[in-house]
Specification:
It is built from 4 helices and 8 strands, in the order H-H-H-E-E-E-E-H-E-E-E-E. By secondary structure, the chain is of the alpha+beta class. Strands 1-2-3-4-8-7-6-5 form an 8-stranded antiparallel beta sheet. A hairpin with an 8-residue loop joins strand 1 and strand 2.
């Protein structure tokens, strides 16, 4: 009996050692997978939309407001990746004179214009494109400011203006809402985007602090429920 008990204890000890080695192996595998996921997240581009992948906002299509020389704007636009097929449709270099352009961001058509500062620098880049708001939140995190463009809650279409203050410029997005398609979530449609050299010390009137996806009426200067 004593010999049998000793053999059983040795068997139990061996089993515990095997289980310990197995657990250690599983832990090492999980750690390796976690490190691989972190590395992949760091090496992948932060935004999947081609329009935003050319350079980091507030740079847009290679143009940085307040820095890029207006005389070089057209050439820089035409240096966009070939698959974007960016074409400059109007040229100009003087103060206030604009270049207009169009192209493709993946399957999305876009067009826009460039305004110039008196000092010979690009002042504003404006792009008309429909993208989900999630892409801008992915690229810029939460906005500094938001407000509805109308004081009349019954007016349609509504437009929610979002502002991001970032080093190097101001990013502005317009989220448009038609009465029949009042959508306010990550897939809300951004229909216009601009970057400019303007800087604010704080959220300019009539802007309000970002409140996330609270009911839209909370972004009115005089909040009132949407009927």
């Amino acid at each position: 009996m004593a010999a049998g008990g000793g053999q059983q204890r040795r068997g139990d000890t061996l089993m515990l050692r095997l289980l310990a080695r197995l657990c250690a192996g599983v832990a090492a595998l999980l750690l390796a997978l976690a490190l691989l996921a972190i590395y992949a997240a760091r090496t992948q581009p932060p935004v999947s939309e081609p329009l935003f992948a050319v350079c980091a906002l507030p740079c847009l299509l290679g143009l940085t407001p307040g820095q890029t020389a207006s005389a070089a704007a057209a050439a820089i636009l035409e240096q966009a990746p070939l698959e974007m097929d960016v074409r400059v449709t109007q040229f100009g270099e003087g103060a206030g004179v604009q270049q207009t352009f169009e192209g493709m961001s993946g399957s999305r058509y876009f067009y826009g214009f460039v305004l110039n500062e008196p000092g010979g620098r690009v002042a504003t880049i404006n792009v008309q494109i429909e993208v989900p708001l999630a892409l801008l939140l992915e690229a810029l995190n939460t906005p500094n400011c938001a407000w509805i463009n109308s004081s009349d809650v019954r007016q349609r279409p509504l437009a929610l203006i979002l502002l991001w203050q970032r080093p190097g410029g101001l990013v502005t997005a317009v989220v448009s809402h038609q009465r029949a398609t009042l959508r306010w979530d990550l897939q809300a449609a951004v229909t216009a985007l601009s970057v400019s050299s303007v800087q604010y010390d704080d959220c300019p009137a009539p802007g309000m602090r970002w409140r996330g996806f609270a009911p839209l009426w909370t972004y009115f200067a005089s909040p009132q429920p949407i009927p």
